[in-house]
Design a protein that fits this description.
This is TetR/AcrR family transcriptional regulator C-terminal domain-containing protein. Keywords: DNA-binding, Repressor, Transcription, Transcription regulation. The protein is mostly helical and 186 residues long. The chain is built from 9 helices and no strands. The longest helix has 25 residues. The model has no long low-confidence stretch (mean pLDDT 91).
Length: 186
């Protein structure tokens, strides 16, 4: 057993039972070890959850970084969509990610910020846009994953509009990009 195995099994457990039911007791049983042996790898459940959040974000964290030839708008849209797809890959992916600190991803974040600034986005606007897109995405996925719980859907009036989560996400993402566009200096 090693740290990566513990995290991989914890993510499988998350997908099976959901975030509220993930426990070190269940994880230890799944791994065939005593619960205290998990503390060799993670001092607290919070440390385990942080490692799970980082591992769950690997598909997005390994996506290609922007190049100087890329159009900032297309890259921004693709980057945010990649983030959304990654959150949706895991049961309760948005809840797992919410509040996590991307300490292992700081160089990639700096690269993305530099790309936006080099593309003519004022630095403060680039920071706010990235933060806004991130929080919008987490919130959208959080709502989408909460709505997907079987049997929990409220009875809506017949004239209530049905909103497809992906269409709503795309519309909101377009508003973020459209709001940023007038600030471009290049």
């Amino acid at each position: 057993m090693n740290r990566e195995t513990v995290v991989a099994e914890a993510l499988k457990l998350l997908d099976e039972v959901g975030l509220d039911a993930v426990s070190t007791r269940k994880l230890a049983k799944r791994l065939g070890v005593e619960q205290p042996s998990l503390y060799w790898y993670f001092r607290t459940k919070k440390d385990l959850l942080a490692a799970m959040a980082q591992a769950a974000m690997a598909p997005h964290a390994n996506a290609p970084l922007p190049t100087p030839e890329d159009d900032w708008r297309e890259w921004f849209l693709d980057n945010t969509r990649s983030f959304r797809r990654t959150l949706l890959m895991r049961r309760d992916g948005a809840r797992l990610h919410a509040g996590s600190t991307p300490t292992a991803d700081l160089d990639r974040i700096r690269h993305k910020m530099s790309f936006l600034v080099d593309s003519g986005v004022p630095e403060r606007d680039a920071q706010v846009a990235m933060l806004t897109a991130s929080r919008f995405t987490v919130g959208s996925v959080l709502e989408e994953q909460a709505d997907s719980s079987p049997g929990d859907a409220p009875d809506l009036p017949a004239d209530s509009p049905l909103i497809d989560p992906e269409s709503a996400f795309e519309a909101g993402l377009s508003l973020i990009v459209d709001g940023l566009t007038p600030h471009i200096t290049a």
